[in-house]
Specification:
This protein is 79% helix and 0% strand. It is mostly helical. It is globular. The mean pLDDT is 85.
Length: 314
Amino acid sequence: MNNLILSFNVVSPLFLVMSLGYYLKHIKLLDLKTLNSMNTICFKVFLPLLLFYNVYKSDIKSSFNLNLILFSVISVIILFLFLLIVIPKIEKDNSKCGVMIQGIFRSNFVIFGMPVATELFGDEKIGITALLIAIVVPLFNLLSVIALELFRGEDKNIDYKKIIKGVITNPLIIASAIGLIFVLLGIKLPTFLEKSVNDISKIATPFSLILLGGSFSFGNVQSYFKKTIFIVSNKLIFVPLIFIPIAVAFGFREIELLSILLVFAAPTAVSSFQMAKQMGGDSILAEQSIVFSCLFCIPTVFLWILILKQFALI
């Protein structure tokens, strides 16, 4: 019961904030033009600052776990490559392919990972999860840019120069790289600047959720139902069902195993909506993947945690 309450308390605030965005649109305080402008601001300013700050504040030396990092990175890349081959065979619409790929492999690790890890293991042990976030989240962003660039528009010819340019100039990739440079070189921001970045970065998550809620339309649920179910069921059930037993077989336990669980079983990343919208993906499919993966992750994460606890693995 405690695990169910934990999962509910972590995920339900996401829905409340998204509901606020939907309500603001309903009472005409948000319109399509405003939402598009705000999405651009969020994608180019607030989300990059959030990602930079999370990487900047990570403690690499005390939390470094090479086996965990290698396992997570290699597993995410293998999953991505598999989806890159399989999804285009299932879905012929380019604008949906990239969204489906990132919807399945890309998790809401920043928003969902830290609260769950903190609740289960306390502040003193979550450095491992924080460091994994600093490594995996930039990887998520990099692979998402590649997927969305590969399937941008209706042109089936792959423009590798455009893909490389899209990766290099992506604000989330740039922010991650700068954060890692600061950490590796030991560069410290002045106190006033660090506090300013911290304060601004806190806007990113609620702002993203409000915009997501404001963009949501229940009229599209039926037309996207099968694709949404496909993404959500793979994201929350089948992908973890593959990688969690492998992680257990490799000897990962406690906070390490929980961190791997959160890489694969957390709901689809909220920022994937802004990225899809800005890069020519099907933003409606992206928003529904986020909303419904957040909804159904309450019982699925509860069950995953319950099973792992039952077997004394976490």
